[in-house]
User: Fold these one by one.
Assistant:
Number 1:
Amino acid sequence: MSVCAAKYHDQLISIRRHLHTMPEEGWSEFTTTAFLVGKLREYGYEVLVGTKVINPDNCLGRSQKVVDDGIERARANGVCEELLKEMGGYTGCVGILDTGRPGPTLACRFDIDCVPVTESTEADHIPAKEGFCSTRPGLMHACGHDAHMSTGLAVAHWIADNASELCGRVKILFQPAEEGVRGAAGMAASGVVDDVDYFLGAHIAMMCKTGEISIKPYGFLCTTKLDVTYTGRPAHAGVEPNAGRNAMAAACNAFVQLLGIARHGSGMTRINVGQLNAGEGRNVIPSHAVMKMEVRGETGEINQYMYDSAVAIIQGCAISQGCEYTIEKMGEAVDLVNDEELVKVLADAGLKVQGLKVRQDPMNFGGSEDGTILARRVQAHGGKAAYFVIGADRPSGHHTSRFDIDEGALDAGFEVWANAVEEILGNN
């Protein structure tokens, strides 16, 4: 069959712009999920939500206040109580379409959350100029997840329109809480991809420009995100400082020592302490400190080295100040190597798109992406997985107030996705 984006072009643009106006942070995407569920059911998909696609025991970095605020916002936005009850407090969804003919099961994954950035209102910023800026100050689709969702829905629509010419089953995964790499672990642990033969994920822009795709990205850094809490004992800083146990001192000492962890000789490492909040008052020995940090490594082994080294420092600094400490894992991602069978599928899919350059040279992704957890889960159960990058020009970097994408890139990205689906599920 011939894949042409023209039929889905208006949908790609209009849905991307609609979703851009209504960003929601991870685990609060109830309005977004309701929109996605509605579209998938309109296209004829069976749709799973709630604990059918998220294992509550494996959720990371999930704040109940953020969840509750998202539910109330969804109510205010007209999301029906029946659907909210079906979600059961968990965002994200999976659409399933069975062609009724024997064949493989393909999973296509798209992320749905935003980042905590206030969008630019400058006159030359296209969302501001054309009236689809974020309506929620402090939150913005500044990483392209709006485009991911729009593409996912267009691909789902195309599959439904062409189901008679396909075989097997497809699962469209709309994953919550990618930012902070928090959502994939819960979705993977639900078992929703355990029967999947082929898994595909993608990101827009990154290291590629409009008119090209990368099918051999590398540099998916393993990472562990941690919240460290030190608990000491308050005391009067003048009368009896010796009675206190200084949690801030423990945290500050840990901060400095963490940055001095010896880097691993076998590959890339990263460490960052992004936030430190401590203390109660000028004349009180600080009894409480919270440090938000992360480690990264080129491989699981290297990331584990960084994690173990960090824990040793955190523990040692607690002991030195007579404080207690807790460590809570807030997010994680793993590394990924694309399976060659799917690299060939993506190459063929890209070469069918007129004017698109297929980058088969290795390109450095240079960050962490929790879609790798889902991909590795599929591989662990005997399936094949691959991740690719759809190029798009952008006026500024990801996670910045002026981030935007060249919407002209959406058509080519959609065609690559649809061509890949046809390669895998084509009823030849």
Number 2:
Amino acid sequence: MHYRGWEVVQVVSGIAYDCDVLVVGGGIVGLSTAYAITRAAPGTRVTVLEKESGPAQHQTGRNSGVIHSGIYYRPGSLKARYAVRGAAEMVKFCAEYGIPHAVTGKLIVATERDELPRLHALVQRGRENGIPVRELGPAQIGEYEPEVRGLAGIHVGTTGICDYVAVARQLAESSGAEIRYGARVVRVDRRADLGVAVRTAGPGGGEVVRGRVLVNCAGLYCDEVARLTGDEPGMRIVPFRGEYFTLARPELVRGLVYPVPDPAFPFLGVHLTRGIDGGVHIGPNAVPALAREGYGWGTVRVRELGATVAWPGTWRIAARHWRYGGGELRRSVSKGAFARAVRRLLPVVSEGDLVPAAAGVRAQAVLRDGTLVDDFLIREGARAVHVLNAPSPAATASLPIGREVARRALAVLGG
């Protein structure tokens, strides 16, 4: 196969395939998929294309590092099942490979009376999901976190923390897959009777990679890769930036402390996380990002912003949730407003205790009608499997997600 200039990449008969399964995206979900494929079907040739110079440089490497218990998610949903299962598997994986981790437990604290019914609903949901939950009064909250104040709380013992970047690296190494870094996908030619040919661009120049099946784990760009493949995903990624601070006085927090989330939104609210490095991370809030990799207000990509604004679902989100969004924007531009949100949980915090830290961007799938997709979303096309919504708790759930995606990809491969 040849290409020159801007010719369309083509798959031709009698092709010499570079691999059996071609995975786009070297975050934790893509690498877990590669790992699962080679374990389920030894000898299957897997190639992973990652546009960055190393693994896990976006959602995987820019989160709080929490191993989520699964308490928040609707019973029976993929998020609930995969998070509960994935949390146990992630702890085991980290222990097996000597990756830093700890099972710390966490508090979820109600600070206002109108949060109490939602807290009690979380207790019930946790029990339905098979998660041990302990209900706490104000004095018992202090036993876990002396500086935290609340009307009531719950303790979830199965929550933990780990180094997800190290997990991703280990998955890459253990998978036996060929990992090609600096390989950004720019074109895809998919033939249902043959497979896929992907043209890449990168620092070393472009190349064409041929595979029998494509797996799209492109995260922030998963909808664009689906459309390059010729599949209409029926959603668009609307990026939300999560801004973090670190706590200058980490001794104020022993472990993990969360507010009671609002079930109308997929975001958990500003929380306190003592990470595996011993520091305490505070955040994130959730504000619209002006680029898919918009880690600050100064990063604007006109094409990406235009595509977000052109999607009808974006305007319907704004109309439906403008009040909530306004509060998030205030906390973004005002350190004082952010500190006030933190003081709901940790009254002794001052603005001076908050040190700016690296932000992350959540790849949130939004439907045309403005619905925020609240579960993992995996869809199939001819010779393709697309992971179209895998924000938090995808890192926690990455091992079960990888097995499910691998199952589908191998079914396509064998079909």
Number 3:
Amino acid sequence: MSARRWPQFLCVAGFAVASAGAALALTGSPALTRVTQKGRAFAPGAVSLQAGERIEIVNDDGELVHHAYLEHPDFGFDIGEQSPGSKSVVAFPKKGTFTVLCGIHPKMKLLVAVK
């Protein structure tokens, strides 16, 4: 390969490797669904996942603290108090229908259907 073509080859090869890495990263990790907490509500109020997928629970309230948790015979979690701007990721490993609640705002409900 001539010295003039070498930089072009490196650029193309680097793109191919970077693209392959991105594809592996996308296929190697479970899906992530964003759920926000704002105005004493989860948004969206219901999500559908496959077993093993995750939700990212984000406190988008400027002033309110939230406390998402789930108590179910098959699966549960408690992320504790979540200050404004904080995020927590929770995986749903089992099939079922779950209701995530807020320990501070009892009317907040997030329905999670895991297939």
Number 4:
Amino acid sequence: MLTSVDNDLIRVLADPLRLRIVTLLARETLCTTHLVQETGARQTNLSNHLKVLREAGVVDTEPCGRFTYYRLRPEVIETLAGRFADLAATARANADTKRACP
């Protein structure tokens, strides 16, 4: 069953730009400058989205000189994917279960 934490994470990942950021970070650790180049988003907008991802625990940061690098936390995505897999398995197992109408 999906929890309120899962629902919050789903909302975080539902934004198209944040999903794009997560997709890019799945391939490699990137700094804000790289993410601006890859997404075409303004730096301030991108920073706001990265803050949301960081606060949700989806990404970790690594300071490197005057830059901050962002790394995806795959275990967070795996946990959410596992919850969806469990939900799908429950639906398959109960496909023929039907509650009678009153």
